[in-house]
Amino acid sequence: MKITDAHLTLAEVPLSDPFRSTWNPGNPEKKLFVTLVEVDTDDGVKGYGAACDSAQLLSGVWETQVKPLLIGRDVTETEAISTGLSNICLYAYRPWAIDVAVWDALGKYANLPIYKMLGGAQDKILAYASTGELKTPEERIEDAERFISEGFKMMKIRVHQDNVEDDLAEVEQIVKAVGNKIKIAVDANQGWFFVGKKAVNKWDYKTALYVAKRLEEMGIEWLEEPLYGYDYEGLAQLRQSVSINIAGGELNSQVHEYKEFLKHGCFDIYQVDTVLSAGILQSRKIAAMVEAENKIYTPHTWTHGMGLAAALQVAGSVTNCPFIEYCYDPPRWDYTIRDCMLTEPLKVDKDGYIHVPDGPGLGVEINHELIDKYTVRKM
């Protein structure tokens, strides 16, 4: 089955209530960006993948780099396509939605979900409610009670205050209120920084160590991104100095960077993002590398429903993914907003599990009517 054409659609879906993310402080997000990739084949099968605003630079190399890589190639040539996309990374930013689209087409051609083609290890995964805004302790406790009532067994909260003592005081208050009913993880968002309207308090090693030890005393499940994402030595030293699990790697790229993490012993939990970091094929390779070190692989999924769908397919193919991120911070970020580009949102069941879509390919359908309505550019 040959690829005959490839299309790129940039859509911007307005948000009725701006989302105030911790990773871009002072700059509320007013739109959900959907960078949708479509590959066409000579059998009439179409494959889809999508990322967010970070992939929009693909438009600059679509005709000169992407189409020559894809057109005329068989969809089974996933290794060659992944290698080509690694080279495209030198020209543009995060082309991995293309890899996902090829795998979606391949799965549809084989009439199998991707996770079954890659190993078929599990068809459901425990989801944790991953929040994205700074809120008061009272609001966060209210959120936690909602998560518990909906079946979640774990949640993740963000800390990003100017003073870490304020962060720690808030976490402690939340733990005291609900820590006996739900497991709690903490994300520091120190792995990378936007240079935006508000300066972010950047942790040094001593600060990260101090916070990690305090969270360890509170029984927190893991501390995520406590230091810059390329500080291999610092992350390794921190992990060796505390017993709390250290997590990260969401925006690092490709197999070689995760090889460095593993060589240094940086993390207990490796959070490769399928549409931002590596695509389907390289994510599966990285998961195997992490398994060989007896560590946890669990994808970062904070893009949108298509990103979550791709991550679920890889997560379902491996044995070392015990839980997965479910981005959920109502009312400004619930699953109807996150998954608006899908005909059906991806929901968690009453026991806190999310089922891997079992239709061919990604197992999800695109809401073309919504995409068409909010398209700003198409190639």
Short description:
By secondary structure, the chain is an alpha/beta fold. It is about 40% helix and about 20% strand.
Any overview of this molecule?
- This protein is of the alpha/beta class and 379 residues long.
- It has 2 domains: 3-111 and 366-378, Enolase-like, domain 1, CATH 3.30.390; 116-355, TIM Barrel (Alpha-Beta Barrel).
- 38% of the residues lie in helices and 20% in strands.
- The protein contains 13 helices and 13 strands.
- The strands form 2 sheets. Strands 4, 5, 6, 7, 8, 9, 10, 11 and 12 form a 9-stranded mixed β-sheet that branches. It has a 4-stranded antiparallel β-sheet with strand order 3-2-1-13.
- Helix 10 links the parallel strand 9 (269-270) and strand 10.
- Helix 3 packs across helix 10 (274-292).
- The longest helix is centred in the last third of the chain and has 19 residues, at 274-292.
- The chain is globular.
- The two termini are 23 Å apart.
- The model has no long low-confidence stretch (mean pLDDT 94).
Can you tell me the number of structural domains?
2
Poorly predicted runs of 5 or more residues: none
Q: Could you tell me the radius of gyration in angstroms?
A: 20 Å
Order of helices and strands: EEEHHHHEHEHEHEHEHEHEHEHEHE
Strand content: 15-25%
What gross morphology would you assign?
globular
- Mean pLDDT over all positions: 94
- Please report the distance between the alpha carbons of the first and last residues: 23 Å
Q: Structural class, judged by helices and strands? A: alpha/beta
User: Which range best describes the helical content: under 10%, 10-25%, 25-40%, 40-55%, 55-70% or over 70%?
Assistant: 25-40%
Largest sheet: 9 strands, mixed
Name of the CATH class of the largest domain: Alpha Beta
Q: CATH superfamily of the largest domain, called what?
A: Enolase-like C-terminal domain
Number of DSSP helices? 13
**Secondary structure tally: strands:** 13
Query: Which architecture of the largest domain would the CATH scheme give at its second level?
Result: Alpha-Beta Barrel
